[in-house]
Amino acid sequence: MPPKYEYVDKTGQLLKKGPRDLKNQRLTDLAEKYSHPSTNNYPAKDITSSPLAGTFKSGFTPTSPFFSGVAGPYKKRRIFNHQKRRFYGFSAVELQELGVLAGVGDDPYDETYVDVMTGNIIGRTYRRDLDNPIHPLYARQNWEKESDIGLDNGPIPVRGEDTGYWLVSNDNIWAVLEPCLQLVSLLLDNANWFPWFDAILHGEIREVDPTRVPSAHVTKELYSIHMRPPAERNEPLQIQKTKDKLKAAAGTLMFRLSSGYCNPYTGAAQNHTVSYGMTRKNFMKRQPSFTVDIATELLQPLLTGELNYDERMLAQFQVATTILHETGHALWEHRYYDVTYDVYKEPYFEDETLPEMGWSLENHIWGGEPKDLNHPTYFAGGPGLPSMGVVRSYWFNECSTAHGVKDMVPLDEVKGPYNLARGSNPFYYIRYWPIPTTWFKDMHKKDKWEHLVRKFGADSLEMGPMTLGSEFRSNDRDPRNLKQKKNSDSNFNERFMFPAQRAALNPDEKVAAATENQRREKALEILKQMRALYSVKSEFMSDEERAAGAGAPVIEPMEVYTCKCPRYDAIKKHFLGNRGPQELAFDSMEFDIPEPTLLRYIQDRGGISLDAEDLRSFLHCCNVKKELFNYRPFPGTGMVTRIPAGWPAAPPKPIRAMQTPDQANYDKIKKVLLDNEFQDTMYGTRGEFRDMPIGDLGDLANSYLPAEEESILRDELPLILHEMAIRDPAILTLGPKNIVRLRTPIQAF
After folding, report:
1. CA torsion angle for 414, 416, 420, 424 (degrees, to 10)?
2. Nearest-angstrom CA–CA distance, 506 and 499
3. Distance from C-alpha of 518 to C-alpha of 528, rounded to nearest angstrom
4. What distance lies between CA 461 and its chain's CA centroid?
5. Per-residue model confidence as pLDDT tens digits over 504-545
6. Fewer CB atoms inside 10 A, N or C side of the chain?
7. CA–CA separation, 585 and 733 (whole Å)
8. Is residue 732 within 8 Å of 741, Cβ to Cβ?
9. The pLDDT value given to residue 749
10. Cα–Cα distances in Å, from 130 out to 127, 134, 447?
11. Structure-model confidence comparison of residues 609 and 51, the more confident one
12. Domains with residue ranges and CATH for the chain
């Protein structure tokens, strides 16, 4: 029986068109894009997908639990309540009426409006697409090239109808990435509108007031960074200085596309839920050098999602804001290189409660955190799915204290009573405000930037309008305790421009102002219509409902692959004949290896023509035959484990000696490789993946020598490591050509 896999390609994006159509033939149109969730893909009890099991639906279709004034069928009511729990207290019907759903038609904001200032009937007025150049920080030459990839990594193959690799040298990849970079470039090109950029590069860094620090953390080096006064930062010379520094940062930064499920250093799968981005220091380089990883899963829907206009604009925004987020981290690292004292984690920005530069930058640009309606957990370990919409939230809250950062310190000053005189303490309460699609669509229009943002500043980019929302205590996820929030009419009326202000605008600025006014007018109209009917409450999941979900059929809970590899015997013969050290080194492969890395080793070795699809079909056959390798295609880019079955006894292939290195230098490097601090660094960055280019390992070991000892010449380091594979095979052996394979027991770390 063919093996089954827990993680899946939910909508067949990595398949050719024929197999993809066959896989999706029973799904609804929305489920073909957004997937059909099932309980095993989202195990959280409060957002179970069991009401959808067996329906072939996405869960996004606007539906009501009532029709003709009579309570609807039980199944329909269960789906409605599932939506309320899944979408922060809103049903899909309510989100559609609020103009939030990118993948569903009848957007109320796409109608024409009466201009409140002139009485004229107008429609959407932002017409021109962005055509600005890309900022030097994000230029094509600043992204990873195939020649930049280490010998222990392989480029990620593009699957489905497209070919090539996830590299910007691939014109298809660059075509979907370029408009995202144009959007984020506008923020850097106009950095003077956003004081955050000036602060991160020039602002004062201060020690945090000790009275704000919890007693358990008083010994940590906690600092905050602060904006300069407007009169100082807005001087033309200072504005130019900030822009010059942003351009100069391009010399210390490289962007790359990698899987968000995988370790960015090794490509090995390590996460069950995708991480959209990561900024990391290249610890082997002496000069400031950083790499920003952007998840291929973010770009996948733009490549294969068959998106409509609204969905495409949303997907481009998601990529752009992820790059913006990581830029925040990278700019701090760029600044920190010149700081002469230690800063614990990252600094706090102004009076923010947690030290997180990426979310801080997003908060200052967008006015909060733009959360996806389609949570990444629904990807089920496979390629990314479209989002459907944006909900405005606030990241700096109690739930974020464990955000992938060990020992993140929340400052005591923001804590206190759960209900302050002015309302709920935002550190303990989370609010969600669904945002109309016009917000991110208009952001991709040149007119808005030229005639609104340039005139009225950063406030023009904040998420909105906010009409109806929900609120809950951060540590209480019971949907029965959600509270509804409603914006007041005055919050919309106050934003309308008075005639005296309007008279000072040029014609293009007047059109832009009218467009923003009409959005607020429509938001006020929607608010009045929905105010009496809206409720965030949903029925609590009863034991009866849980029982019904537990017994429901689950569509494609696991992927099933058969053996279809005409060249299986020839490939197997090649592998058996190249299994030794400095060949393909299968005999010492006692750890999991990423599929792209294995393909890289095979292609570098030569002797057989093999592409990504050839290798994948071979590995599926290995699973069916239960020999040579165990293969798991998801999560991420695939992982391969050597198994004993199918391998005959290994013929002796001793490592040939080279020039004997200096004994004193040999002992120095051996001592470093056995040092606990060195091993902690290796395991902390590379996990259980044991391969490393021989030159990189030598350079890294050299950098760990005591300061008083002279560095070993680079030409001698490979000789030392080669000799160590012969003398001390318990420490390391040789992998494929120019690769060293560490063998120090991981449990010792």
Report:
1. 70
2. 13
3. 15
4. 22
5. 677 777 667 667 666 666 666 666 566 555 555 555 455 555
6. N
7. 10
8. yes
9. 42
10. 10, 11, 9
11. 609
12. 4-86 (no CATH), 96-128+411-539 (no CATH), 129-368 (no CATH), 561-642 (1.10.10), 663-748 (1.10.10)
Q: How far apart are the first and last CA of the chain?
A: 40
Q: Count CB atoms within 10 A of the CB of residue 410.
A: 21
How buried is residue 397: exposed, middle or buried, by Cβ count under 10 Å (0-12/13-18/19+)?
A: buried
Strands 290-295 and 253-258, by their bridges, are parallel
> Considering only CA atoms, which of 256, 252, 242, 346 is closest in space to residue 294?
256
Cα–Cα–Cα angle for 542, 548, 554, rounded to 5 degrees: 130
Q: Which helix (H) or strand (E) holds 559?
A: strand 559-560
- At residue 430, the pLDDT reads 84
Place of tokens 């309007």: 502
Across all residues in the chain, what is the average pLDDT? Answer: 84
- Bridge-partner residues for 486, per DSSP? 468
Q: Which residues of 593-628 are buried (b: 16+ CB within 10 A; e: fewer)?
A: bbbbbbbbbbeebeebebebebbbbbbbbbbbeeeb
Of the ranges 444-453, 494-503, 713-722, which one carries the lowest mean pLDDT score?
494-503
Type of residue numbered 673: L
- Which class for 150: exposed (0-12), middle (13-18), buried (19 or more C-beta within 10 A)? middle
- pLDDT value at position 417? 41
H-helix or E-strand spanning residue 277? strand 277-281
Per-residue confidence at 346, pLDDT binned at 50, 70, 90?
very high
